[in-house]
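Format notes (please read before filing issues)

Several people have asked whether sequences and C-alpha cells are stored in separate files. They are not. Every record keeps both together, in the order shown below: the sequence lines, then the C-alpha cell lines. Line labels are part of the format and must not be stripped during preprocessing.
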Amino acid sequence: MIIISFNSCGNKDNYTRIEIMTPYNNQIFNGNTTIEINAKIFDDGDSIMNEELLVTEVNSNNGVPILDFKDNKFCFDYSLIKNFPAEAGKEYKIEIKAKGGHGNWTNKTIMVKCN
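Then the structure lines:
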C-alpha cells in the first residue's frame, strides 16, 4: 500500500492586519491641535467585517471617549481616516480593532500626547 500526501502552502493567515500610518506611537504634538488618524486594515486570507476606532484621554476621570467610531463595512481593504481635537498637556490612547470573516479580532494601540 502506498499513501501519498500533499500539503498546501496557501496563504491561510487567519488574521486581519492593521497598519497605522499616522500618528506614530508616542508622537508628541505641540499645543492644542487636531490629530489625524490614518490607518489601513486588510486581510489577505478573508474579508473584513467590523472596523472600530476608540480614542480616549489617558488619566481622565469621566471615561467618555473623545472619538468612538464603528463600521461594519464588508470588504478586503479598509481605509480609516478620522481626526480628533487634542488639548495641550494631555495624553491620548488610540485603539483600532478589526474583525475578519474568520471571526478573529485584531487590535493595535498607540499613545500620543500634546505639550
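For reference, the curators noted about this record: Confidence is low (pLDDT under 50) at residues 3-11. The chain has no helices and eight strands.
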